[in-house]
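Worked example (supplementary).
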Amino acid sequence: MKDGFRQSMAWLHTWSGLLVGWVLFAVFLTGTAAYLRPEISHWMRPEIAAATPGPRDAEVAVAAMQALAPNSPSWFISLPEPRDTSIRVFWRDPTAEGRGFRSAVLDAATGQPVAARDTLGGEFFYRFHFQLHYMSAFWGRWIVSICTMFMLVAIVSGIITHRRIFADFFTFRPAKGQRSWLDGHNLCAVLALPYHLMITYTGLVIFMLMTMPWGIERAYPNQRGAFNAEVFGNAPPRRPLGQPAPLVPIAPLVEQARQQWQGGALGRLQVSNPNDASATIQLIRDDAERLSYNPQSMTFSGATGALLSTRGEGGPAAETRGVMYGLHIGRFAGPLLRGLFVLAGLAGTVMVATGCVLWAVKQRQQAAKKGQPGFGTRLAEHLNVATIAGLPFAMAAFFWANRLLPQDMAQRGAWEVHVFFLAWGFCALHPLLRPRRQAWVEQFALGAAAFALLPVLNLLLTQRHLGASLVAGDWVRFWFDLGLLGCAAVLGFLAWKVARHPATASRTRVAAVPRPARATS
Amino acid sequence: MARPGAANASATQGKRPWPGAEARRVAAIVLRVLGGVGGGYGIAALSTMLLSTSLPMPKAEAVLTASMASFAIFAGAIVWAFAARSVARAWLGLAIPAALLALALLIPGWGA
Amino acid sequence: MIVLSFALACAGFAGLCLGMERHYEQVFRTRRIPPARRRLGVSAGWLLLALSLLPAVLQHGWGFGLVWWAGVLHAAALLLALTLTYAPRLVLAWAAAPVPALLLAALLPSL
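After joint prediction of all chains, the assembly is encoded as:
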């Protein structure tokens, strides 16, 4: 019965992969882009000068917040780091619309709000890849989690059904039609299998308290707060006492924290009830220094400077979860290691893409023998080009919007995102008007042109073009511009490859293959 | 009812499929999906609940461990739902563990 | 050190694939692998793959070292697969890579 088992796993693999394949492609591609979240944000705010983090950043930040929001009950401050050299602040403001928060980007040297264009920056790709857009975070996260579960099933069934996983480990036979697509799909899947398993499973674990809350419900019925406190060590919020008390200077607290962490760097600050007697200042260690994403922190009284609590290592399960979360986010990775993560992420993206294309190619070949391709095949082909070629173009359009939209436009950040979806929408409609191969070639070519012209746009519209970045030593922007050209090259290569692809030759090859002998009955 | 994917073999042999064979094939698939996804999630949830309250470690740790393991259990159940030789076997293989887990949850020492 | 890890991984994968008839043929143009060579290829391959963990752990400790090692293995495997397809002879170069890498590691251990 082994063949039957393998066949059923092949069926399961095909459908668990295909039904959500296009969503998974988008998640993988934007997730890979999210590895470069700070770099993208830095590039998308050309007004901000590249700076080096200094020892006084915390003091500057706190002083700035005193000026910006002295009466806010909570300040959340992200300190500069080598990858993103500005101070990013959020604070609670009941008068603000939406979720009641305001945010600002501050210059690290002066604490003044940078007059940077309103943009989501890399945050958009990061958030899109786990909660999509134009829907509540709840629905977005549930949809992505369900698709991730599909992905896990696809991986497991794929491993089971792959007959010659070791023998075919390095096998890639190009220019052989369907066989090449399968080889490519297998290669990307098997060669980076540990990564795919890790990223999928850790992705599920990140939202497990939402998707699998039954353990908490059972063990802590109606006591979510108690569970959170035990695991995350968040001290319960203290009510403001209404007694004004100036915030203690932060420099000695920073020094104390650095000693506790044996030279570790400060990543974030969280201040509750500033300038009140019940104020607390939480110093959170830079999460790029450890595998585990669990924050290590020290909480001090804001009025007296006394140490209230320390959060170090949690229990083994908590640390395991922290490491899983940390592995997924990958913030601990330096440039080279992050490059390896990006490579693996791209392998995953190509794996999903080749899977979707393989199915369509196979269906079309079978249809060539029996007549017309069915609706499912044509739908899959349409979605393939709209997603695999369309999404990269949409990402380039997002960057174009960042450079072209007027600075003082209302809702500018939101409009950059609208442009992204408009471009993607165009790519979704375009295949209706063009023959199959033309659609692919045109969308890839459009994406290539869009990426290639971005550094030119930079030259024309901003002070932060390639040459200027080189002179100023702004390596993030320099390499980013080169990376854009690299994306253009890849998309251009793909356009060229598809244009060259001998479509008629594959049809004759299909005809030349003898029909499976009827004699098996 | 045979596993999905095996049906193609008979379709190409030129025999005329009797009416209802296609409907049965689709029904088998639907039943396996329902069992695998619904039953699988149920088993994962039940085992999370059971492990959260019975693992020999502090409660918060147990909850985290159980929750982290649940997805492997869920995936395993789905694979079983499609690997089992017949739909009946698939459902039995899901219903029995679910029932056992539910019963275990009722035992005072474990289920509290 | 990471360069050494990468070189060892490349050599390890090279050894393993040279132990497979299909890939031996791609590199050496004959299908039949002399049995001694095959055993050498496979055993040396696994050994080198295992050894490639050491420089990563030495430089970065166990936690980060394992992550680095996984990344290095992925990259080396991809490189070998592409080399076999598009420039099979280069596989022999990867097999010899640990030698210069060892030298580099001795001179510039931070790499």
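Two points are worth noting when inspecting this output. Residues 504-515, 517-521 of chain A have pLDDT under 50 and may be disordered. The longest strand of chain A covers residues 266-272.
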